[in-house]
Amino acid sequence: xxxxxxxxxxxPQALILLLARRPAxxxxxxxxxxxxxxxxxxxxxxxxxxxxxxxxxxxSVRLVAGWATVVAVSHPDTAAALGHxxxxxxxxxxxxxxxxxxxxARARFGGGPGxxxxxxxxxxxxxxxxxxxxxxxxxRLVEHVRVVHVTGDAGYGPAIAAREAxxxxxxxxxxxxxxxxxxxxxxxxxxxxxxxxxxxxxxxEAAAFALPMAIVPYPHAAGHQRRNAEAYAEGGAAVLIEDDxxxxxxxxxxAGLLADPARHALMSAAAREAARPAAAAxxxxxxxxxxxxxxxxxxxxxxxxxxxxxP
Length: 311
Prior knowledge:
This protein is of the alpha/beta class. It has two domains: 121 residues, Glycogen Phosphorylase B (Rossmann fold, 3-Layer(aba) Sandwich), CATH 3.40.50.2000; 173 residues, Glycogen Phosphorylase B (Rossmann fold, 3-Layer(aba) Sandwich). Helices cover 48% and strands 12% of the residues. The strands form two sheets. A six-stranded parallel sheet has the order 7-6-5-8-9-10, with helices on both faces. A four-stranded parallel sheet has the order 1-2-3-4, with helices on both faces. Helix 6 packs parallel to helix 7 and helix 13 packs across helix 14. It is elongated and about 70 Å long.
């Protein structure tokens, strides 16, 4: 109940801060914290760039978009929803992929020549349903593929127990981890198929590695993940599995994609077409242009900058 009062009080705070700092430009990814800063920036004629990675923009993004000098988005549908005259499709900025060695990454997770690797993870949202599906399907999965499974803390103990219950000759084909941080890049590079949620960064990193996905969108958070998943699936790079439909049988069915080389190749090509691995550089070009009061680049120039070089 106090949030509106706090928001109102933050406007003079933002005014004092921006008058003292006089930034050349402001970059924001939205959220309610952006409202006072973007409002004051508009009043002080400080140029700004707003970036949003979800297909469906949130309320605060819709509000502050009208105050931004330039809007950058990951999806064309977002541009249409916001209706800003200077909107660029940049893709989603991700961590640098420079120096990633796919062969070394596969070796790190035990992938030998001709072996397929299934990566399963749940992102920052609850992963119990995904974990239960993996453990239920595990004996069938490891007969055909190697499984790299990011379980979260709560799921790691049961995953280790399930691994020990496998026949000795198959245990190495299942590698659970409570978390993967910097190593997540190698896991994505190593994988032939990923099963996970539909966060904007997750989909952007998968696309950068031309990685097909079975997406299980988080069913809450105003449906943002579902629309992200639909956009990726509509492009042909993924199949969509509803959260309440995911079980062991459905996971085995999804993993069956790895036994269909022709379909896998088509999905991989679709993911590569969607990839914008240098989106951060493209967004940076827009920020520098408004900060220096230079002519804005064209969408074609932004497309070229965002595509960069693929791994």
